[in-house]
Amino acid sequence: MKERLKTLLLVVLVLGSLVQSYVLIYRLPGSDSVVQSKDSYIRTEEMGPEEKPENLLYPDKMIIHLGEDKHTIFYPNDTFYNLVYNRLKGRTFDNFQRRMVGNIDWNKVRSENRGIELSFDSGIPVTLLQRVMQIVPDSLFSGESINKMWLYSVPGEAKVHVMFFSTKGDVVYEAVQADLTVQDVDQLVDFGFNWTPYTMVDGRYYVPNKKLNMVSTELPVGVYTIEQMQRSLFFDPSITRNIREKDGSEIYTDSKRSLQVDQGQHWISYTDPAAPPSGESSPGKDVLSAIDFVNQHGGWNGIYRLSKASESEERTLVKFQQYYGGYPILNTSGFQYGVMELDLQQGTVTSYERSLLYLESPALSKQMVTLSGGEELQAKLDAIAEESRIQNLEPAYLPIITGEGLLLKPVWAVELQNGSVRTLE
């Protein structure tokens, strides 16, 4: 009898041990599994905080059309920008009809009708926009990327027109059903009165009719170390070897992946040329993979916005633009800063570029700066336009390294047709 009890007790202990081991390895349903697939990203070095995709998806500017060819612009972090965007995110858009862009006189719509135009830079996949706005899934529309959303009312009509412009350039989708009234749009547009007036030039960019005030700020900076980046990006940093290049940069490699470091500019370029797994991909899914990668490999060192998600030859280039106080921080050839860029193939990151610098607080100094506007600014732009066509104009910060930290200098950023950017102080 004793032997049977001992045997039974031993069996219970063994079974209990097996159950405990299973729970430790796989955890309980609903919790994160310790065992991960070979394609998932594993958390390594924690440097910056994680970010939710929804917090990275918002327009680069909001153009308010007041009627009678009057306009103004709200930029991220403006009080009215946040108010208008939050209200639009709560509305539902459904029943999309495809139209040709050329069938509507948009210059007439812009000058004669009151409305709100949301700009999304080079475009945002609709599947991502659905994460922040109440857009009812549509088989045709959901596969698009849009660079502009335009809501407007026509005098004498009882409905609001809601248009989504495809990045392809020749197609626009109208949400026939939208729970917005003409009164709703009028109320939102009214926030633009008594704001800085803007004039459209050549149908491409807006110039303020008067000077614009911005704050020049100098901030202390921290620097991520090479050791931190190695622990973040390599599975086993102990097997990496260092190669010094003739230009002064250094390369760290484990014979598979490589990390190139520009010590002068504190800029890194990481590449992983491993063949991606076979499977379907899309810009929307690749953006989410890119966000997940940054969350797990360095984190976010400030406020960012998705500024690019372009697909070509089975690759997706994803770019995140850093902001300070509602304005973008420029990335220049003289000083690389203010962006994160990732290349993906079928959801796998093959390259990753970012700065090792990050801003700290409180500010070392602040000073109000006035940027030119009106005829003075237009004269400067006309001189530039004689050399190259101007595509866009926006206020921005030019980062400058100082002896104390990083100076964010207010400038006008002039984007040219060839993609280059010139600055006007």
UniProtKB/TrEMBL annotation:
It comes from the Bacteria. It holds the Pfam family YycH. InterPro entries: YycH, YycH/YycI_2. Residues 3-418 form the Regulatory protein YycH domain. This is Regulatory protein YycH domain-containing protein. It comes from Paenibacillus ihbetae. The lineage of its organism: Bacteria, Bacillati, Bacillota, Bacilli, Bacillales.
